[in-house]
Design goal:
Number of domains: 1
Shape: globular
Order of helices and strands: HEEEEEEEEEEEEEEEEEEEEEEEEEEEE
Helix content: under 10%
CATH topology: Neuraminidase
CATH architecture: 6 Propeller
Structural class: mainly beta
Distance between the termini: 33 Å
Strand content: 35-45%
Length: 327
């Protein structure tokens, strides 16, 4: 009778905490509703969507879908992912995840999960940049003794063919972020920690061109379809600064205190942010920043190009939640 009483008590405790048996069914959880900016929206006709790595900590950024329009709303797509770079084109979203010594793991994000990139798997590299048509991926790969020298490689996502377009001359000189131009060109800052210059590779097979001989220390780069290049300082490490150049190196404007996030698809508007996460925008010809409001998810560290709408199949990551009653 005593044993039967103990068994009954144990069963009562088990029912109280619900999840005391290994057969308890796991539940899935989804993310909260989108968080929207309390300030003003994007001017009429400049609507779209970007995908971004954002958060209060640059080393633990999450992936967000950001809707740009009369209201600016941000939907979280991942949890605990540590996203560092984001690029998108023609229905494909590629991110850098799981930071490594010789690069970050490059993956496709679709259907709420990370997947291998077509033709290349999950390579470790830096600065992935999808071409506007989504057919080619450019990235910065380590090579040479000790993987200390960096090269810019373009990879066809249809057949996996690789072409090395540019290689640094030493471990001290490194290419920065990569941007695709309207005619298939590639632009990137290049140099050491003290000084960088803008370099453009016109087309595969053509020699690189040094465009600007001024200091453009700016790993963030965005190329506008109407032929303006925005170079920006990384807000994670210093105050914002945006330099607008023409592809031949002519200076158009210098926007102090702000870093570039992305150009509108139709041109003429550059989305900006300050180091504290405040979002704004500037339009030509004067390029004076106008404040939109504080970002509800923190600063943006990397963003895709400005798309006309959401990418089909990109939905929030589904994570296994602990059973009810577990700690």
């Amino acid at each position: 009778m005593a044993l039967r009483g103990l068994a009954g008590a144990a069963l009562a405790v088990c029912l109280a905490v619900v999840a005391c048996t290994p057969s308890a069914e796991p539940r899935t959880r989804s993310f909260d509703e989108p968080r929207c900016l309390s300030g003003a929206g994007i001017p009429e006709g400049k609507t779209g969507v970007i995908y971004a790595a954002a958060g209060e900590d640059p080393y633990n950024a999450e992936l967000y879908e950001i809707e740009l329009g009369r209201r600016i709303c941000m939907r979280q797509l991942t949890e605990g992912a540590r996203i560092s770079e984001v690029t998108a084109g023609d229905g494909m979203l590629i991110v850098s995840n799981a930071r490594g010594i010789i690069g970050d793991r490059i993956e496709l994000f679709r259907d709420g999960r990370f997947q291998p990139v077509p033709q290349i798997g999950r390579p470790y590299a830096f600065g992935p940049a999808l071409s506007p048509d989504g057919h080619t991926l450019a990235l910065i790969a380590a090579h040479g003794p000790g993987n200390r020298v960096k090269a810019i490689v373009v990879i066809s996502l249809s057949d996996g063919h690789r072409t090395r377009l540019f290689a640094s001359r030493s471990s001290r000189e490194l290419p920065g972020g990569i941007a695709w131009g309207p005619a298939g060109e590639l632009a990137f800052p290049y140099g050491d920690r003290r000084q960088q210059h803008l370099v453009i590779v016109p087309l595969p097979g053509d020699p690189p061109k040094l465009i600007s001989d001024q200091d453009v220390w700016a790993p963030t780069i965005r190329w506008h379809p109407g032929d303006l290049i925005a170079l920006g300082a990384p807000i994670a490490f210093r105050e914002g600064r945006t330099l607008l150049l023409t592809p031949d190196g002519g200076e158009v404007a210098l926007i102090e205190g702000w870093s570039p996030v992305g150009w509108s698809p139709s041109g003429g508007l550059l989305l900006l942010q300050r180091r504290d996460g405040t979002l704004g925008f500037a339009t030509g010809p004067r390029w004076r920043p106008r404040i939109l409001g504080p970002s509800p998810v923190g600063p943006i560290y990397s963003a895709s190009g400005w798309l006309e709408g959401p990418i089909p199949g990109v939905v929030p990551q589904r994570t296994e939640a602990p059973p009810t009653g577990s700690p």
